Amino acid sequence: MTSYNGKCHCGQTAWTAKLPEATTILCHCDTCKLLSGGSYTLNQIIPKDDVKVTQGDLKAYVYKGDSGKGVNCYYCPNCTSHAYHVKEAMPDKAVIMTVLLDGGKDFKPVAEIYGKAKMSWEPESAQTFETMPPS
Ligand SMILES: [Zn+2]
Ligand SMILES: [Zn+2]
Question: Disulfide check for 14: which of 1, 36, 55, 129 has CB 3.0–4.6 Å away?
């Protein structure tokens, strides 16, 4: 378990996240495209208690997820960088955006989810699931 520092683009907010390993999951869902402006997001699902905001206050944007329940997206109110999401469908977990963590750009992909929404020109970098991996 290693603790990583994360920060937003403007530096007004910062947080730490404990990760069991330096890996990441690519999410190709359409919501991630709209929220990030990119073709996918890089994240890892960890216990919510392992995320701590250490500077500033993140604001929550709430939308309805696939489950029909709310998803809270915590972001910097100044620059809009998304730090992590908490789904009401799994309230003890946080979906932490790994690329905003120190060293996160080098985390290796271990899975790709929502492959059904993947853009046709994207190469495969890890095992790809249509939606979520079978639990
Ligand atoms: Zn910011
Ligand atoms: Zn997504």
Answer: 55
